[in-house]
Specification:
Layout: E1 2-3, H1 14-20, H2 36-56, E2 64-67, H3 70-84, E3 90-93, H4 98-109, E4 114-117, H5 127-136, E5 141-143, H6 157-167, E6 172-176, H7 188-191, E7 195-199, E8 210-214, H8 240-255, H9 257-279, E9 282-284, E10 295-300, H10 305-314, E11 317-318, H11 334-338, H12 343-346, E12 349-353, H13 360-377
Parallel strand pairs: 1-11, 3-4, 3-5, 5-6, 6-7
Antiparallel strand pairs: 2-8, 7-8, 9-10, 10-12
Helix pairs in contact: 1-8, 2-8, 3-4, 5-6, 9-13
The structure holds pyridoxal-5'-phosphate.
Residues 69-71, 74, 97, 99, 145, 149, 176, 178-179, 199, 201, 210, 325 line the site of pyridoxal-5'-phosphate (PLP).
């Protein structure tokens, strides 16, 4: 199998698996207890929190809230910050992941003002447009992703934060860094946001665990109510192994970001160049300069994406169209609509995403395999 769907999820890094092993075995305590068995688990969670805080450049470990994944981190950010201050509106971009877009819609159903800011033809959000919407709403929750999961566009989050701070000084800014964290600097320093979401399984960690960076002083109403773990911000017994595995994966990813960009970027570049040159009538959706190094989104003119995905699968190639986080059925994506793509063109697009196991040789052989499948279809 050639796995070209790392934006959907990634294989676990061996370092993450090894770090988790004790917590799936002998160190099984509930970190909320007081006896020695619990304390060992609690120490692991708190050490992971310190390391995650250092990796993200947080001022304090307690600015890290562990969650059950990226979706939960996004809900806690948007709904949690929205509910914490009555009456606040919300500003999002038109290409947010459903975890953010549906959270904003939920606030809309509670009577909050929701503004959706459009993007340009490559999926970039204009900082001025976000700032203008934020200024009009008073001091809303603003959520703009660090990079898009479908087309890979990197957003100018630092500029957006600066523009929003000027127009709406009390606004709370969130950025969903779930796709970007494996290859971009998503630290507090780099993004400047008040809230930042990360998911373990997109960077070589386990599924079902994530974190939300919460700037000290930002109030959040919890989404999950219960025993008061995570200073009351996220109740529920910690997934100790998951948290430890996530931080081990983050450590490996973030300490080798340059290596990843070189290796995986080379895989993506040779793949894209080969497919485009050898096949012709292949259109690159977003220029490489504004796109994640691991992302490739292509339109195969005249070829139905769903048919192509089935043929690719039969040839042992795993790729995606639309958003893999949704039902499995391919719908015209809101992201492609937002960049102004017609439905026919959108139905001819496939996403290929590379990850930590890949290198240039993998990219070249993946390209040969994809070219062969497309040639049989033509
Ligand atoms: C940008 C983005 N945000 C959020 C999520 C949801 O994360 P999780 O799968 O951990 O719930 C995803 C997953 O595809 C994503 O790509």
């Amino acid at each position: 199998m050639r796995y070209l769907d790392h934006a959907a999820t990634t294989p676990m890094r061996p370092a993450a698996r090894e770090a988790m092993a004790p917590y799936l075995g002998t160190v099984f305590g509930n970190p909320s207890g007081i006896h020695a068995v619990s304390r060992r688990a609690k120490n692991a969670v708190e050490e992971a929190r310190e390391r995650a805080a250092a990796l993200l450049g947080a001022a304090k470990p307690l600015e890290i809230v562990f969650t059950g994944g990226g979706t939960e981190a996004d809900n806690l950010a948007v709904v949690g910050a929205g509910i914490a201050r009555s009456g606040r509106g919300v500003v999002i971009s038109a290409i947010e992941h459903a975890a953010v877009a549906e959270s904003a819609r939920f606030l809309g159903r509670l009577g909050r003002d929701v503004r959706v800011v459009g993007v340009d033809a490559v999926g970039r959000v204009a900082p001025d447009a976000v700032a203008e919407a934020a200024g009009e709403l008073g001091d809303p929750i603003v959520s703009v992703m660090t990079a898009n999961n479908e087309i890979g566009t990197i957003e100018p989050v630092a500029e957006i934060v600066a523009a929003v701070r000027e127009a709406a000084p009390e606004a709370i800014v969130h950025s969903d860094a779930v796709q970007a964290a494996v290859s971009e600097d998503v630290s507090v320093r780099a993004l400047g946001a008040d809230l930042i979401s990360v998911a373990a399984h997109k960077l070589g960690g386990p599924k079902g665990v994530g974190l939300l960076y919460v700037r000290d002083g930002v109030e959040l109403e919890p989404v999950l109510h219960g025993g008061g773990q995570e200073l009351g911000r996220r109740s529920g017994t910690h997934d100790v192994a998951g948290i430890v595995g996530m931080v081990a994966a983050m450590e490996e990813a973030m300490s080798d970001r340059d290596g990843f960009r070189r290796r995986v970027g080379a895989a993506r570049d040779i793949f894209e160049r080969t497919v485009v040159d050898r096949l012709g009538e292949v259109v690159v959706t977003v220029p490489a300069e504004v796109r994640l190094v691991q992302h490739c989104h292509l339109r195969f003119v005249g070829i139905d994406a769903e048919t192509l995905l089935v043929k690719l699968d039969m040839a042992g190639i795993a790729a995606a169209a639309g958003s893999a986080c949704q039902s499995g059925a391919i719908e015209t994506s809101h992201v492609l609509r937002a960049i102004g793509m017609e439905a026919t063109a959108a139905g001819e697009c496939v996403r290929f995403t590379f990850g930590w196991p890949d290198d240039e040789a993998a990219g070249r052989s993946a390209a040969d395999a994809v070219v062969a499948v497309v040639e049989t279809l033509r």
